[in-house]
Amino acid sequence: MAAENGNPGFLKRTWHRLRSPSAKWSVLGLLVVGFVIGSVAIIGTQVMVNVTGTDKFCGTACHSMQWVAKEHRDGIHGTNRTGVAATCHDCHIPKDYPYLLFYKARAGIKDVIGEMRGVIDTEAKFKAARMEMAKHVWEEYAGNNSQACRNCHVFTKEVLAKQKEMVRPIHATVMEGKATCIDCHKGIAHTAP
Ligand code: HEC
Ligand code: HEC
Ligand code: HEC
Protein backbone atom coordinates (compact mmCIF):
# COMPACT_ATOMS: atom_id res chain seq x y z
CA MET A 1 0.00 0.00 0.00
CA ALA A 2 2.82 2.37 0.96
CA ALA A 3 4.37 1.91 -2.43
CA GLU A 4 1.12 2.80 -4.17
CA ASN A 5 0.54 5.93 -2.07
CA GLY A 6 4.05 7.33 -2.15
CA ASN A 7 4.76 6.26 -5.69
CA PRO A 8 1.87 6.55 -8.14
CA GLY A 9 3.72 4.93 -11.04
CA PHE A 10 4.55 1.77 -9.13
CA LEU A 11 1.98 -0.56 -10.72
CA LYS A 12 2.63 0.82 -14.16
CA ARG A 13 6.39 0.37 -13.84
CA THR A 14 6.05 -3.14 -12.49
CA TRP A 15 3.75 -4.04 -15.38
CA HIS A 16 6.22 -2.55 -17.83
CA ARG A 17 9.09 -4.51 -16.27
CA LEU A 18 7.11 -7.73 -16.36
CA ARG A 19 6.39 -7.24 -20.05
CA SER A 20 9.91 -6.31 -21.19
CA PRO A 21 12.48 -8.93 -22.01
CA SER A 22 14.93 -9.58 -19.20
CA ALA A 23 18.28 -7.83 -19.44
CA LYS A 24 19.90 -9.61 -16.49
CA TRP A 25 18.69 -13.18 -16.87
CA SER A 26 19.65 -15.47 -19.69
CA VAL A 27 16.98 -17.52 -21.39
CA LEU A 28 18.63 -20.62 -19.91
CA GLY A 29 18.48 -19.11 -16.42
CA LEU A 30 14.78 -18.36 -16.84
CA LEU A 31 14.12 -21.86 -18.15
CA VAL A 32 15.88 -23.35 -15.12
CA VAL A 33 13.84 -21.20 -12.73
CA GLY A 34 10.65 -22.21 -14.53
CA PHE A 35 11.64 -25.85 -14.44
CA VAL A 36 12.37 -25.75 -10.71
CA ILE A 37 9.07 -24.02 -9.90
CA GLY A 38 7.17 -26.46 -12.11
CA SER A 39 8.85 -29.47 -10.50
CA VAL A 40 8.16 -28.26 -6.99
CA ALA A 41 4.50 -27.73 -7.90
CA ILE A 42 4.15 -31.19 -9.42
CA ILE A 43 5.96 -32.98 -6.60
CA GLY A 44 4.04 -30.95 -4.00
CA THR A 45 0.74 -31.96 -5.61
CA GLN A 46 1.77 -35.60 -5.65
CA VAL A 47 2.84 -35.51 -2.00
CA MET A 48 -0.52 -33.97 -1.02
CA VAL A 49 -2.42 -36.59 -3.03
CA ASN A 50 -0.54 -39.32 -1.17
CA VAL A 51 -0.76 -37.78 2.29
CA THR A 52 -4.51 -37.19 1.98
CA GLY A 53 -5.08 -40.54 0.28
CA THR A 54 -4.46 -42.95 3.15
CA ASP A 55 -7.20 -44.68 5.12
CA LYS A 56 -5.69 -43.14 8.23
CA PHE A 57 -6.19 -39.63 6.88
CA CYS A 58 -9.65 -40.30 5.40
CA GLY A 59 -10.86 -42.13 8.48
CA THR A 60 -9.53 -39.84 11.19
CA ALA A 61 -8.82 -36.34 9.82
CA CYS A 62 -12.49 -35.54 10.14
CA HIS A 63 -14.38 -36.42 13.25
CA SER A 64 -17.40 -37.32 11.13
CA MET A 65 -15.66 -40.13 9.22
CA GLN A 66 -14.83 -42.28 12.26
CA TRP A 67 -18.01 -44.36 12.12
CA VAL A 68 -17.73 -45.49 8.51
CA ALA A 69 -13.99 -46.02 8.97
CA LYS A 70 -14.55 -48.57 11.72
CA GLU A 71 -17.11 -50.48 9.66
CA HIS A 72 -14.69 -50.54 6.76
CA ARG A 73 -11.80 -51.75 8.91
CA ASP A 74 -13.86 -54.63 10.26
CA GLY A 75 -15.30 -55.57 6.85
CA ILE A 76 -14.05 -57.83 4.04
CA HIS A 77 -12.45 -54.88 2.20
CA GLY A 78 -10.55 -53.80 5.31
CA THR A 79 -9.29 -56.96 6.96
CA ASN A 80 -9.45 -60.36 5.30
CA ARG A 81 -7.51 -63.60 5.16
CA THR A 82 -5.50 -62.73 2.02
CA GLY A 83 -4.37 -59.34 3.28
CA VAL A 84 -5.47 -57.45 0.17
CA ALA A 85 -7.49 -54.44 1.22
CA ALA A 86 -9.49 -51.84 -0.69
CA THR A 87 -8.82 -48.34 0.63
CA CYS A 88 -11.26 -45.46 0.92
CA HIS A 89 -9.55 -43.98 -2.12
CA ASP A 90 -9.99 -47.13 -4.20
CA CYS A 91 -13.77 -46.93 -3.87
CA HIS A 92 -14.41 -43.21 -3.51
CA ILE A 93 -11.91 -41.32 -5.66
CA PRO A 94 -11.49 -41.85 -9.42
CA LYS A 95 -7.97 -42.98 -10.17
CA ASP A 96 -7.36 -41.12 -13.44
CA TYR A 97 -5.57 -37.79 -13.66
CA PRO A 98 -6.47 -34.96 -13.93
CA TYR A 99 -10.00 -35.91 -12.90
CA LEU A 100 -8.68 -37.27 -9.58
CA LEU A 101 -7.48 -33.80 -8.59
CA PHE A 102 -10.77 -32.01 -9.37
CA TYR A 103 -12.72 -34.71 -7.58
CA LYS A 104 -10.50 -34.64 -4.49
CA ALA A 105 -10.54 -30.86 -4.28
CA ARG A 106 -14.32 -30.72 -4.56
CA ALA A 107 -14.94 -33.52 -2.07
CA GLY A 108 -12.34 -32.12 0.34
CA ILE A 109 -13.79 -28.61 0.33
CA LYS A 110 -17.32 -29.94 0.83
CA ASP A 111 -16.25 -32.20 3.71
CA VAL A 112 -14.24 -29.48 5.45
CA ILE A 113 -17.15 -27.05 5.28
CA GLY A 114 -19.49 -29.75 6.57
CA GLU A 115 -17.10 -30.57 9.39
CA MET A 116 -16.75 -26.92 10.42
CA ARG A 117 -20.50 -26.33 10.36
CA GLY A 118 -20.89 -29.44 12.45
CA VAL A 119 -23.34 -30.95 9.96
CA ILE A 120 -22.56 -34.51 11.05
CA ASP A 121 -20.40 -34.09 14.15
CA THR A 122 -22.38 -36.42 16.41
CA GLU A 123 -23.25 -40.01 15.75
CA ALA A 124 -26.96 -39.14 15.78
CA LYS A 125 -26.52 -36.42 13.16
CA PHE A 126 -24.33 -38.74 11.12
CA LYS A 127 -27.01 -41.41 11.12
CA ALA A 128 -29.60 -38.87 10.03
CA ALA A 129 -27.46 -37.66 7.12
CA ARG A 130 -26.28 -41.10 6.14
CA MET A 131 -29.04 -42.03 3.73
CA GLU A 132 -28.53 -38.85 1.76
CA MET A 133 -24.77 -39.43 1.45
CA ALA A 134 -25.21 -43.07 0.52
CA LYS A 135 -27.63 -42.06 -2.22
CA HIS A 136 -24.98 -39.82 -3.76
CA VAL A 137 -22.54 -42.71 -3.85
CA TRP A 138 -25.11 -45.10 -5.29
CA GLU A 139 -26.02 -42.59 -8.02
CA GLU A 140 -22.38 -42.12 -8.89
CA TYR A 141 -21.80 -45.88 -9.12
CA ALA A 142 -24.97 -46.39 -11.16
CA GLY A 143 -23.77 -43.63 -13.51
CA ASN A 144 -20.32 -45.08 -14.15
CA ASN A 145 -21.20 -48.79 -14.14
CA SER A 146 -19.50 -49.26 -10.74
CA GLN A 147 -16.11 -48.37 -12.22
CA ALA A 148 -14.37 -48.41 -8.83
CA CYS A 149 -15.42 -52.02 -8.15
CA ARG A 150 -14.42 -53.08 -11.63
CA ASN A 151 -10.94 -51.59 -11.21
CA CYS A 152 -10.28 -54.61 -8.97
CA HIS A 153 -12.98 -57.17 -9.77
CA VAL A 154 -12.75 -58.16 -13.42
CA PHE A 155 -15.31 -60.77 -14.43
CA THR A 156 -14.60 -63.25 -17.19
CA LYS A 157 -16.04 -66.68 -17.93
CA GLU A 158 -13.09 -68.22 -16.09
CA VAL A 159 -13.63 -66.05 -13.03
CA LEU A 160 -17.32 -66.89 -12.91
CA ALA A 161 -16.49 -70.60 -13.05
CA LYS A 162 -14.60 -70.21 -9.77
CA GLN A 163 -17.42 -68.46 -7.98
CA LYS A 164 -20.12 -70.07 -5.89
CA GLU A 165 -22.50 -71.94 -8.14
CA MET A 166 -25.58 -69.97 -7.17
CA VAL A 167 -23.86 -66.69 -8.06
CA ARG A 168 -22.77 -67.64 -11.59
CA PRO A 169 -26.09 -67.04 -13.39
CA ILE A 170 -26.53 -63.82 -11.40
CA HIS A 171 -23.12 -62.49 -12.37
CA ALA A 172 -23.69 -63.58 -15.96
CA THR A 173 -26.23 -60.74 -16.15
CA VAL A 174 -23.42 -58.37 -15.14
CA MET A 175 -21.27 -59.56 -18.03
CA GLU A 176 -24.21 -59.02 -20.38
CA GLY A 177 -24.36 -55.44 -19.14
CA LYS A 178 -27.82 -55.87 -17.65
CA ALA A 179 -26.84 -55.02 -14.09
CA THR A 180 -24.03 -53.27 -12.26
CA CYS A 181 -22.33 -54.20 -8.97
CA ILE A 182 -24.02 -51.56 -6.84
CA ASP A 183 -27.51 -52.75 -7.89
CA CYS A 184 -26.98 -55.77 -5.63
CA HIS A 185 -23.95 -55.04 -3.44
CA LYS A 186 -25.05 -52.06 -1.43
CA GLY A 187 -23.41 -51.91 1.98
CA ILE A 188 -20.30 -53.74 0.79
CA ALA A 189 -17.84 -51.66 2.84
CA HIS A 190 -20.08 -49.98 5.39
CA THR A 191 -23.40 -50.93 6.86
CA ALA A 192 -25.92 -49.83 4.23
CA PRO A 193 -28.24 -47.24 5.76
C1 HEC B 1 -8.76 -52.33 -4.28
C2 HEC B 1 -9.45 -53.46 -4.88
C3 HEC B 1 -10.94 -53.64 -4.60
C4 HEC B 1 -11.97 -52.76 -4.84
C5 HEC B 1 -11.88 -51.34 -5.36
C6 HEC B 1 -13.20 -53.47 -4.54
N1 HEC B 1 -12.90 -54.73 -4.08
FE1 HEC B 1 -14.26 -56.17 -3.52
N2 HEC B 1 -12.75 -57.36 -2.89
C7 HEC B 1 -11.40 -57.12 -3.08
C8 HEC B 1 -10.65 -58.23 -2.54
C9 HEC B 1 -9.14 -58.36 -2.56
C10 HEC B 1 -11.59 -59.14 -2.02
C11 HEC B 1 -11.33 -60.52 -1.42
C12 HEC B 1 -10.98 -60.46 0.00
C13 HEC B 1 -10.73 -61.85 0.53
O1 HEC B 1 -11.69 -62.64 0.56
O2 HEC B 1 -9.61 -62.14 0.86
C14 HEC B 1 -12.90 -58.57 -2.26
C15 HEC B 1 -14.09 -59.19 -1.90
C16 HEC B 1 -15.34 -58.78 -2.35
C17 HEC B 1 -16.57 -59.52 -2.18
C18 HEC B 1 -16.71 -60.88 -1.51
C19 HEC B 1 -17.23 -60.68 -0.12
C20 HEC B 1 -17.22 -61.96 0.68
O3 HEC B 1 -17.76 -61.89 1.78
O4 HEC B 1 -16.68 -62.95 0.22
C21 HEC B 1 -17.57 -58.81 -2.79
C22 HEC B 1 -19.03 -59.16 -2.87
C23 HEC B 1 -16.95 -57.59 -3.32
N3 HEC B 1 -15.61 -57.62 -3.03
C24 HEC B 1 -17.63 -56.60 -3.99
C25 HEC B 1 -17.09 -55.35 -4.31
C26 HEC B 1 -17.86 -54.22 -4.78
C27 HEC B 1 -19.35 -54.24 -5.02
C28 HEC B 1 -16.98 -53.19 -4.96
C29 HEC B 1 -17.30 -51.75 -5.38
C30 HEC B 1 -18.17 -51.04 -4.47
C31 HEC B 1 -15.65 -53.68 -4.61
N4 HEC B 1 -15.76 -54.99 -4.21
C32 HEC B 1 -14.47 -52.93 -4.69
C33 HEC B 1 -10.85 -56.01 -3.70
C34 HEC B 1 -11.55 -54.87 -4.10
C1 HEC C 1 -27.90 -59.01 -9.95
C2 HEC C 1 -27.23 -58.95 -8.67
C3 HEC C 1 -25.70 -58.88 -8.64
C4 HEC C 1 -24.89 -58.03 -9.36
C5 HEC C 1 -25.31 -57.00 -10.39
C6 HEC C 1 -23.55 -58.29 -8.93
N1 HEC C 1 -23.54 -59.26 -7.97
FE1 HEC C 1 -21.93 -60.01 -6.98
N2 HEC C 1 -23.08 -61.32 -5.99
C7 HEC C 1 -24.46 -61.34 -6.02
C8 HEC C 1 -24.94 -62.34 -5.09
C9 HEC C 1 -26.41 -62.67 -4.80
C10 HEC C 1 -23.80 -62.94 -4.51
C11 HEC C 1 -23.75 -64.04 -3.46
C12 HEC C 1 -23.83 -63.36 -2.13
C13 HEC C 1 -23.10 -64.07 -1.06
O1 HEC C 1 -22.49 -65.08 -1.30
O2 HEC C 1 -23.14 -63.52 0.06
C14 HEC C 1 -22.65 -62.28 -5.10
C15 HEC C 1 -21.34 -62.59 -4.78
C16 HEC C 1 -20.24 -61.86 -5.20
C17 HEC C 1 -18.87 -62.14 -4.88
C18 HEC C 1 -18.37 -63.35 -4.12
C19 HEC C 1 -18.29 -64.50 -5.09
C20 HEC C 1 -17.94 -65.82 -4.45
O3 HEC C 1 -17.86 -66.81 -5.17
O4 HEC C 1 -17.76 -65.84 -3.24
C21 HEC C 1 -18.11 -61.16 -5.45
C22 HEC C 1 -16.59 -61.02 -5.39
C23 HEC C 1 -19.00 -60.26 -6.13
N3 HEC C 1 -20.29 -60.71 -5.98
C24 HEC C 1 -18.60 -59.12 -6.79
C25 HEC C 1 -19.42 -58.42 -7.68
C26 HEC C 1 -18.95 -57.35 -8.54
C27 HEC C 1 -17.54 -56.81 -8.54
C28 HEC C 1 -20.00 -56.96 -9.31
C29 HEC C 1 -19.98 -55.93 -10.45
C30 HEC C 1 -18.97 -56.19 -11.50
C31 HEC C 1 -21.15 -57.76 -8.91
N4 HEC C 1 -20.74 -58.64 -7.93
C32 HEC C 1 -22.42 -57.62 -9.43
C33 HEC C 1 -25.28 -60.55 -6.80
C34 HEC C 1 -24.84 -59.63 -7.74
C1 HEC D 1 -15.19 -51.52 -1.30
C2 HEC D 1 -15.52 -50.14 -1.59
C3 HEC D 1 -15.50 -49.10 -0.47
C4 HEC D 1 -14.48 -48.81 0.42
C5 HEC D 1 -13.15 -49.51 0.56
C6 HEC D 1 -14.93 -47.68 1.19
N1 HEC D 1 -16.19 -47.30 0.81
FE1 HEC D 1 -17.30 -45.78 1.60
N2 HEC D 1 -18.92 -46.37 0.47
C7 HEC D 1 -18.91 -47.38 -0.49
C8 HEC D 1 -20.27 -47.52 -1.03
C9 HEC D 1 -20.68 -48.51 -2.12
C10 HEC D 1 -21.08 -46.58 -0.37
C11 HEC D 1 -22.59 -46.34 -0.57
C12 HEC D 1 -23.37 -46.83 0.62
C13 HEC D 1 -23.31 -48.31 0.78
O1 HEC D 1 -23.70 -49.04 -0.14
O2 HEC D 1 -22.85 -48.75 1.85
C14 HEC D 1 -20.20 -45.87 0.57
C15 HEC D 1 -20.62 -44.83 1.41
C16 HEC D 1 -19.76 -44.03 2.16
C17 HEC D 1 -20.18 -42.86 2.93
C18 HEC D 1 -21.58 -42.28 3.00
C19 HEC D 1 -22.28 -42.74 4.27
C20 HEC D 1 -22.74 -44.15 4.22
O3 HEC D 1 -22.54 -44.87 5.21
O4 HEC D 1 -23.30 -44.60 3.20
C21 HEC D 1 -19.05 -42.36 3.53
C22 HEC D 1 -18.95 -41.13 4.43
C23 HEC D 1 -17.94 -43.23 3.17
N3 HEC D 1 -18.41 -44.23 2.34
C24 HEC D 1 -16.62 -43.06 3.58
C25 HEC D 1 -15.61 -44.03 3.45
C26 HEC D 1 -14.31 -44.01 4.14
C27 HEC D 1 -13.85 -42.90 5.07
C28 HEC D 1 -13.63 -45.14 3.76
C29 HEC D 1 -12.27 -45.63 4.24
C30 HEC D 1 -12.10 -45.78 5.68
C31 HEC D 1 -14.48 -45.87 2.82
N4 HEC D 1 -15.67 -45.16 2.67
C32 HEC D 1 -14.16 -47.05 2.18
C33 HEC D 1 -17.81 -48.11 -0.87
C34 HEC D 1 -16.59 -48.15 -0.21
TrEMBL record:
Processing and modification events after translation: Binds 4 heme groups per subunit.
Binding site for heme 1: 58, 62, 65, 111
Binding sites annotated in the UniProt record for a menaquinol: 104, 111
Cellular compartments per GO CC: plasma membrane
Residues the entry annotates as binding heme 4: 181, 184-185
Residue ranges the record marks as coiled coil: none
Family label: Belongs to the NapC/NirT/NrfH family.
Record keyword Heme present: yes
Localization (cell): Cell membrane
UniProt: heme 2 binding residues: 88, 91-92, 190
InterPro entries per record: Cytochrome_c-type_ET, Multihaem_cyt_sf, NapC/NirT/NrfH, NapC/NirT_cyt_c_N, NapC/NirT_cytc_sf
Presence of the UniProt keyword Glycosyltransferase in the record: no
Protein name as it appears in the record: Cytochrome c-type protein
Membrane topology, record value: Single-pass membrane protein
